[in-house]
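Example A, followed by Example B.
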Amino acid sequence: MNPNQNPTPAAAVAAAAPDAAVTATAGPVAPAPSPRTAPSSSGTAPSPVTAPSPVTAPVRAARRAGLLVTLVLGGLTALPPLSMDMYLPALPAIADALSAPAATLQLTLTACIGGMALGQLIVGPMSDKWGRRRPLLIGMVVYILATAICAFATTAELLIAFRLLQGLAGAAGIVIARAVVRDLYDGEEMARFFSTLMLISGVAPVIAPVIGGQVLRLTDWRGIFVVLTAVGVLLTVVVVKWLPETLAPERRHSGGVGEALRTMRGLLADRVFTGYMLTGALAFAALFAYIAASPFVVQEIHGASPQTFSLLFGLNSIGLIAVGQINGRLLVGRVSLDRALGLGLAVIALAAVALLLMAAGVFGEVGLVGISAGLFVLMSAMGLVMPNANTQALTRTPHAAGSASALLGTSAFLVGAIASPLVGLAGEGTAVPMAVVQLVAALAAIGCFLLLCRPRRGARAVAGGV
């Protein structure tokens, strides 16, 4: 794993022992102690546990700001679900307006997701080299322009193209928000912050379809992109005014593209990091299958209105937020992150099995209530998977938070982009493809978690005091 070309002492220690799990929490940092040997929470051999990276003045100021920085980061991570979910109630209307089939319109979602995946891969290393603010502001400006152009699209192909650009630019908010969290916090404190961040950013998928449904009452689908443009402008102003730079110049990478690629290659060579990355990405595939298919499952198959779909979507998002808060406030510190993550994966798999049986008619005609209940359970369990998988992966990468965050986000969105169109292969009259994609993704996530992360081996090492 390649360290910074001009590493700080803490970064140098982290680079020398890439398997180290940093367990210190946020707060005043004492002088760095000498390395001590402790068990790795990921199940690898014992490795030195080091102090967090030196806390700079901007980092201390950001921690003091507390709620304000949380709200700003929550807004950045809320932008992707706003971009994806606000126009979901309008998908059938867009298909009619642009004379395009449902499968083609689902490519607008795929393009946005794919753009966010590729954009994170670009912006992450940029933020490690130039700091967090500059790449973020550039991305926000491009996002605003691309979203405004989407409102004037006259063909499905044009909408797909600018949704791709919208995703590329919007990726800056995702990857940099996650990197800023890694700059500010470590260990269990990071897991708690991710759960808190989920509370803020989780409001977006709750209100986005509702807002989209209400906008459709006042205007057509183009008005949704006008609203998204205004949101982008507002968030850019907030970032300029209230988000400080959290990556000190001495902690930045000085290399170019080659150095960034070597850093990412080193991260991927870490089996456990890759395991958590794939676990989170495959769980996201189940989530994106739901996002892509649910407008047609709820509205076309079960005859619900856009407003009913919006309310059901919001209810599922509330379940995700609630479980995320249970994770951050009750489980972290009492239950191992791996155990909570494993529980979430098991529930997702069981919910996917139930959805498949219901969609296939095994239980007879279950109607919208049964399908909605299964989707609610599946979505809620994401509140255990997302914060804990991200924390376990980022804990191992204090020296390259931007690149690690980029890999986490890119893998999730790439897998999601692949899963999204698969749910429409059998047409709009059945929910079976959605359930099949969700079940396959959940089982694959469990396999990666058990085979690569090896949580049982880590638990035995801790119990034995190795």
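Example B, a separate protein, is given below in the same form.
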Amino acid sequence: MTCYFKLAEAHWTPPHASWLNQAELFFSALTRRVLRYGDFASRDDLIDKLDRCAIKHNDTAKPYRWTYDGTPLKAA
């Protein structure tokens, strides 16, 4: 488990909520939005489209709301 401190307050995150998961989500969205069906005239065109996608993502980003309550998953 990871612990983050903020002014004498400890915030525990679930063990599956690493920064790597967030990076994987970002690159997955980038692949779906830009790369999968992209048609690029040049390397510079590809870079320009990747930059525009990242800037748009940063402008519209919202905090992630955790829904995991810590209880073990039940078998179906």
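On Example B: Residues 1-5 have pLDDT under 50 and may be disordered.
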